[in-house]
Amino acid sequence: MNDDFSIFWYNDEHAQGLFYELLARSEQGAYDDDFLAQLAAYREAAPASERADIFAAKYLLHHEDAENAIVCAERAREKRPLNYEIWKILAVAYKALHREMDSIYMQGHLYGLYGAPMPSLDMESPSLTEALDRL
Length: 135
What we know:
Blueprint: H1 4-28, H2 33-45, H3 51-62, H4 66-79, H5 84-96, H6 100-114, H7 128-134
Helix pairs in contact: 1-2, 1-3, 2-3, 3-4, 3-5, 4-5, 5-6
């Protein structure tokens, strides 16, 4: 007979294994049907984690669906407001949807807190002054 404690540890190890598989596939750019199957299993194993939404957003960005990537990344951001990966995703996705100010805002966070590369500013933009003020 299994007690709840042993099942908890099994689920934790299972979720951890799925996470590392997703991470490896993500680093290789292997965003295919197997990735989606592992993502679904990970979401079930760790429903409270923001990481499933991060992986989903990366998958969607890879397939050029910036609008839905933002939905996933913003949901992850609600769970974990200070997260490098979430901010990177949002910066790229906002830029893809021509939401320059939002992209610059995320890039500013990345630069200010993590020393990421300087934000990419469009010097021809009519809102350059606003962008600089935000930074």
